[in-house]
Amino acid sequence: MITFEEIKKTFIYDPETGNFFWRIKPSKRFPAGMKAGSLVDGYIRISHKGKTYGAHRLAWLYMHGEHPEHQIDHINCNPSDNRIENLRKATQLENAQNRRYPQKNNSHGTLGITFDPIKNLWRARVTVNGKRKYIGKYKLKEDAYNAYVEAKRSFHTFNTL
């Protein structure tokens, strides 16, 4: 695992843009001063000495001098935005509460609601401290989603919806 001293010696980090640059010439292909990292599944990944790191975790190490114990959350939900002001330490639960987009297997494309085909209604619910809380049933998908967002805002002071 890369150390604080090694990251300072190897990279230049711009906290206002979130970009890393090679302080040293890492290989014949890359000159010193070149932007480091590549975009993989929305995240900037940086390889160094055979190990790949998330740029958000390296930014935290660079600015705070320690590896984060848990996860690093992108406040604006953009995983390629590694400005230090956009990063915060988070547990897995806190990070999941900040989700703004549904998972890829979500059939209707909306967070916090499901469709009840028997009653022909939309159900809204929110998860709080690992437990689902029922909000209500609604005829319109938009009404269910609005109820979910309102409940999420009231229960999760951590999120930025």
Description of the molecule:
This protein is α+β, with helices and mostly antiparallel strands. Helices cover 24% and strands 30% of the residues. It has four helices and ten strands; from the N terminus they run H-E-E-E-E-E-H-E-E-H-E-E-E-H. The strands form four sheets. Strands 3-4-5 form a three-stranded antiparallel beta sheet. It has a three-stranded antiparallel beta sheet with strand order 8-9-10, with helices on one face. Strands 1-2 form a two-stranded antiparallel ribbon. The chain starts with a helix and ends in a 6-residue tail after the last helix. 19% of the residues are buried.
Please sum up the structure shown.
The protein is α+β, with helices and mostly antiparallel strands. It has four helices and ten strands, in the order αβββββαββαβββα. A hairpin with a 4-residue loop joins β1 (11-14) and β2.
